[in-house]
Amino acid sequence: MKKQQLFLRSLAKTSSVLPIAAFSIVLFSGAAQAQWGWGPSFSDFVFSGTLQCTAVPFAGTLTPTTINATETAIVTCEAINPINGQGGNGTFQLFVSYTGIQSSCNNATSVRTYSASCQAGTSVSGNLKWIGDQLSPPEPRPLFCGTGTGTCQLNIGGFPTKNNGTIDSNACSTVFPATFDPDPGAQIFAVKQVFLFQEVYHGPKCSGSVEPQNQFARYCHSDSFDPNASPQCTVKVQNVVDITTGSETTDTGIVVSIDVQPNTVNTSCPANKDNGIVTATIFGSSKFDVSLIDTTTLTLNDDTHVQPGSCSTLSANTDAFRDLRCKFPSCPLLGPDLVGTNGTVVLDGNLFPLSAQQPGTAIRGTDTVKIN
Ligand SMILES: [Ca+2]
User: Fold this and answer.
1) Domain parsing of the chain, residue ranges
2) What is the Å distance from ligand 1's center to 250 Cα?
3) What is the mean pLDDT of residues 251-270?
4) Under CATH, which number does the domain 256-371 receive?
5) How far, in Å, is the centroid of ligand 1 from the Cα of 226?
6) How far is the CA of 210 from the centre of ligand 1 (A)?
7) What distance in Å separates the CA atoms of residue 212 and residue 275, rounded to the nearest whole number?
């Protein structure tokens, strides 16, 4: 558990799990720290620089199966060291696909672990594409993307490239060394490991509702922003390595389905008048058990806290899963906060912690109300 502290330290709002089919789970990755630290450490590349990226909370997905996984996220990136002589920052879409990962359930702890190592049969491919020109208003093109209007895309992945048809295990160890959280000193990645992700189940033998756990990944990269360039992770003969790698950590959380009532919220809070109540119903599902929610952590739009003792479970819809309903004051904050907005109400909270050493998994739900 301690090894996750580094990454949980700044965990405020993270991401999500959403059931989409019986055998797959969509994990909306987001949050706290996602960092790609490309540098010329082993390199005979021309390419140099460090691009540091932070994932936008609840703005991505991680979809694992037993043998592969795909990951998407919206990230904001800044060149903290010039890239080919240019600085800059911008908003990027991350896409990564993994094949050849391993998955196993620890029946004693009900934890499923997904992992990938540098070996034959495993591959990583993807890219980081600037999308700032599609935003409203559009953002300026990052200087490190160069001039012009062409696609600005950094290719990542390419792991592992074979050395005359075989993987050089010594080179794998060099390219993907063990890494440690410097604070508690705990290991994050084992030698050769490139991917790690866990799910904690609340039923026996990895069944029942599930909490996503932090995701750790690291990549190779291409040495250019040319969208047509191939990702490189080239392991040469005689263990000469001409690769640099980046790594990423992404906290995860759970997106929940909610309903906020009444449909219209009064935005004025005159003195000496009755202060309204807003209720939020959180719907349970086969993958999400509302009894795991620490109701004291619930907020609406960041600053309106749940009324103490106001939560109760019920069957709010026609499915077989229990739901949770809580009350929140519409004054003095929630109603006035909605003035000038489109009426979006965001519920945030946490599940009960799995241990005393870490916060509970974050949850988030969104609904829209009318305002008057
Ligand atoms: Ca229900």
Assistant:
1) 2-254, 256-371
2) 30
3) 87
4) 2.60.40
5) 49
6) 17
7) 38
